[in-house]
Amino acid sequence: MNAPASPPAWPLHMPCDTVIEAGLLVTQDDRRRVLADQALVIHGGVIQKILPLADAADLRCGRRLDLRRCIVLPGLVNAHTHSPMTLFRGLGDDMPLMDWLSRRIWPLEAGLTRELVHLGSQLACCEMASLGTTCFQDMYIFQESTAEAVESFGLKAVLAEGILNVPTRSYQTPEEAYARIANLLADYAGHPRIRFAVAPHTVYTTSEAILRRSFQLAESYDLPWCIHCTEDEAELERAQALFGMRPVTLLERLGCLSPRSVLVHGVLLTEGELQTLARAGASLVHCPRSNAKLASGLAPVAACLEAGVRAALGTDGAASSNSLNMFEEMGMAALMAKVRQGDPTVLPAQAVLDMATTHAARALGWQELGRVTEGGPADLTAVSLDVPRHTPCPNPVSHLVYACQGAGVVLTMVDGHVVYEAGCFPTVDYDGLRHAVREALAWARSRLDTISA
Ligand SMILES: [Zn+2]
User: Fold this and answer.
1) Which domains does the chain have, with CATH numbers?
2) Which DSSP state fits 400?
3) How far is the centre of ligand 1, averaged over its atoms, from the C-alpha of 331 (Å)?
4) Distance 391 CA to ligand 1 centre (A)
5) CA of 285 to the centre of ligand 1 (A)
6) What end-to-end distance do the CA atoms of the chain give, in Å?
7) pTM for the full predicted model
8) Residue 451: its pLDDT value, please?
9) What's the rounded Cα separation, in Å, for the pair 324 and 342?
């Protein structure tokens, strides 16, 4: 693993921005150390020093955060979502995928605007920050609006305009989508928190030309290339009808599999396809709650890791999984893998936490994220040890995966800046946002009523 270069030793007599006092520190470093009673010295958005709490009493700092009754851990990395779909949450439950798409999602998306996408992205940022996520990969339209929301809120994101072979509200042709990617890259060049990916939607909603061209773009800009792949039987049938082969075979023949390739879902991957992905160095993003709710199936995650394929975790959009909660996703991933294999020893808690932190970060090409190390970014979250489900705490990693479910998150920080603390969002007018999203729900309901009338 490529650890970030160690910074010069921090002169401890110098005042720093923040000192965090951590009761338990889950580092996710190369040795997966869990340390008790540590102090984190943060300055300039970077963790400058980690030292025993007993040695930190006299440090001078702008702010001292008492998290001695907490587990402090790296901010979680949500490797796949569609953030603006928070606006559609609860509007299409308990429906088959094609019904859900054609009777709910596509009619709503046909009326989307930049402003609505911005609103839904802001809401997603609030939800994710309040549940310990500091970075997410987004695939949707009007990504310039999501970029603005992320920029002002303070999270990190890897944004991707979803590319389809049909016009969307955001662009008329794939060429326009490619141009949008180029513009966003220019607008946010060198941005410390916002990066981009190239994301054809699926093989069956694009074409061989789009798949090839989008992969070339990702290579030329050195970006991750993300695609929904092998999610359910219907997708396999469509791929077979259109291309005469399975999606992974098609991607391999088109030269679209490499370490920059990030395949989302992978529910129906075969053993041979896992070997293909392992040889290519591609990553898989597992979205167990979405797959379960749509009854798509259970991805072979344990076999995937065994084959040497990097597996990350994602929530998918809130319209399909109803939640952007990576803690719930971790618990679900562990339980479903055990059910699938009929073996309680597969996918232990540490492997699942890796999927939500270091593996997700590496899949997105941002490997300094997902770990708490000296010289790394101060992207952290803290979970209270005082809530009943975390008391007592013999094994913090176990609690984070099996018990937490998002309960007791008290603070989330990105590059040393607090974006969530004790129910408050310091970078956004949350009351105003709640009012605006209620109005957006009224818009969505009336739109669905008009269509079904
Ligand atoms: Zn998705």
Assistant:
1) 16-74+370-421 (2.30.40.10), 76-363 (3.20.20.140)
2) I
3) 19
4) 35
5) 10
6) 57
7) 0.97
8) 77
9) 28
